[in-house]
What does this fold into?
Amino acid sequence: MADQKKKTKIYSKIPHMKMSELMNLWRNALRIRSNDKDKFRHAQADKIIKKINEEWERRGKMPRNPEGYFDWPRTDAKSGFGGIQTENWLKTGLLNFMGYKVGETDGEPRHVRQRILAEIFSGPLPPVFEQSYLEKWADPSSAGRLHQLAETIAALTRNAKRRRDAKMNAAIRDWEADLEFLHDEYYVGKFRFGWPTSSV
It folds into this structure.
């Protein structure tokens, strides 16, 4: 009973969460969902992901920065890790913002990365970027969404290869494995646009 109340409390908080809080909750739910050892928590993680996707869609339909409206600044702070968090998401790309990271130092395990990519391909995107940028990502599960996703990863791979830096080898391997995952899972037999190459 107490566990059910806790779940209901989380769901009711979602519409009032700041985007950074939503992203942390979304990423944690994805990590749980992509871990076979946490199967008993998969249903709850799926429900949280669904609720957050619905919230992103709701916020995406709201007018952006209507004239004269802004959130009044607050001075309260929750305890944290001792660093400064930024809300300026435009300094980073969509993949990084969604928690997609590669390489040995900072990278996510393959099953987490590919779960993130699957959600980016098939779900709504958080309305935190300029509309013109989000339009490049097209509709969920569309050829345009998959093309943008694959082209972004292929471009990152090509740029890393041009650097000829051994430190990038793990990142390149991750990107190429993820491109193969997207190709085999979503492209083959479904779409016909020219698949981007990661060779230089």
